[in-house]
Amino acid sequence: MSKKLFAIFNVNNPPSSSSVVSVCTNVIDDNYPNDTLSSSQGSIATVESLEPIKVPEPETCDLGTLLTGPARPVLESYPKTIFGKQNRGFNSVYYSSFSWLEYSIRHDAIYCFCCRNFSIASDYNDSTFTSIGSNNWKKLSGSRGKKGNKQSKLHGHSTSKQHLTCMAKWEAYISTITTGSVHSQVASSHKLLVEKNVQYIKTLVDITLFLSCQGLAFRGHEESKLSLNQGNFKEICSLIAKHYPEFAEKFQNTTNYTSHAVQDELANLCAENIRHKIIKEIEDTKVFGIMCFKQEQMSLCVRYTVGLNIVERFLGFIDVSDKQDAESLSAHIFAYLTKNNMDTFHVVAQSYDGANAMSGLWKVQWCSG
């Protein structure tokens, strides 16, 4: 009995294309050999008596997606359905009146694109236009009787609260795709503002470099708005503002970054950048000479080679107002060179204004390292 029962698993030629479901009724357990099957209880289906049962393939959806939009096929003729004594069907004319309307050829039914994609199941009770589909073509055009005041099914759906909410969500989604999300819009606006600020500061830096290269004073005696001469820095800013509206927009603000403190900071940053570039040039040869001009602020210049050219560069001021003897001046020079990471380079020459303070064999050798 067991061989006959499990013979269904030994099919020699299984069907190739369709799915087969084998059916067996009233299976007999070998533990109960006395059990018999009567005609009323059924019989065991053998391999020869089994007929394949075809399982239909899942239907593919022919409706639109968020990427493609509503599916709105225009056919020469749509399938007809009998309503009473008339054959009725869908008409593509409805597309022009309802932007959310879409038609499924497979199901011969209409759906609402926005409700189908943006509705929330807990808040949406009517599934006619979302999952089931509507094919009651008789009610699409509304009442045509004497009164003619019965609203069509499409108009009724388009004015419902749930549909209007989904429609607003769909429009917001389209706006997001076109112009970006709120976060991206804020980020873009912030990025544009940063670019304008950077361009404005770059212009102030160029003014700082111009005045420094020309050796001109930055500030004037009176820099108020009523002053006839607000100083070179602000006067140049006013000149540029006349010809460049973007610069004028920032310059006319209350906070326009042209105060004394900002001017000093810009000058110090430019000086630091130039000093760093000079030190990078000295790194190539590792040797240089120093030239010092002693006042209460000692000027320190360096002399070195760039390729085959000899250049002299101003490096910075050193405050030596406390004491100006040889030992104090040497200590200030070494401290300044160490501060700028130049203590590993070799000083091969030195010259001083007021050499009597640095004269003497021991002092010169000690100063030259």
From TrEMBL:
Region (Disordered) spans which residues? Answer: 139-160
Q: Which SMART domains match?
A: ZnF_TTF (SM00597)
Basic residues compositional bias, start-end: 144-160
Where the record annotates domain TTF-type, the positions are 86-182
For this protein, the record's PANTHER family field holds:
OS05G0311600 PROTEIN (PTHR45749:SF37), PTHR45749
| Name this polypeptide is given | TTF-type domain-containing protein
Which lineage is the organism of this entry classified under, starting from the top rank? Answer: Eukaryota, Metazoa, Ecdysozoa, Arthropoda, Hexapoda
